[in-house]
């Protein structure tokens, strides 16, 4: 039922009122961003405060080139490290030479160690499909995994979602839940703990629908700030980050913990630029691991 004219005027009156601020900031010295759920920017320190009044804050530095700021302050208790698609199928040498993905492993391990120390939870988000997923999957998604159809069903880089991999690559269905090829890349798996959370996805993004388990878990957990790492920067990582941005989560890209096989085209630089100047913030493992609690 459409609202009455009186109800419309009431809604307008509410929207035109300034929101009540419940954080310890002098608004004269800080710039507020957002409605009820606000960030604050301090022109003197050139830092964004994303902590929303938290008692404990972690200050993460960043350069002031294209980003025009000196970093962010986050609440570790409401922060989540999201590691995307660091799976055997994408990283392991049995499948391909993903040199850019391999480069991310050591800085990512340092970031994970820092997260454990600061009480930041870790999330593993990966392709992990079922027969039902294949049944309802849009054709554009399945086409992305069948780029080599001319080479006898595409065995190799793009074998096809759900198809049987050749024996030398495990002989299991491609990126199916429970298979070795869909599991966490072996050198990273030993660093997982029972406190970590893990979600499967069947799209480039793990947050495209509010009905997805990860989407529901994030809302219920109260997490506000998401640190992004993994592969590929311009594909599944960017897809998930973009949806997170649109749904209202804070997004921070750890640039040296993210890699892509299309970097020869400058894809990574473009992603870094767009995230840093629009969708969130960009830093690296060195700055993150040097972050201090205040």
UniProtKB/TrEMBL annotation:
InterPro entries, sorted: Isochorismatase-like_dom, Isochorismatase-like_hydrls, Isochorismatase-like_sf
Pfam families, per the entry: Isochorismatase (PF00857)
Ranges in a coiled coil: none
Keywords linked to the UniProt accession: Hydrolase
Residues in Isochorismatase-like domain copies: 79-263
Domain of life of the organism encoding this protein: Eukaryota
Entry keyword Nucleotide-binding: no
Keyword Iron attributed: no
Gene Ontology MF, one: hydrolase activity
SUPFAM superfamilies: Isochorismatase-like hydrolases (SSF52499)
UniProt family annotation: Belongs to the isochorismatase family.
Identification of the protein by name: Isochorismatase-like domain-containing protein
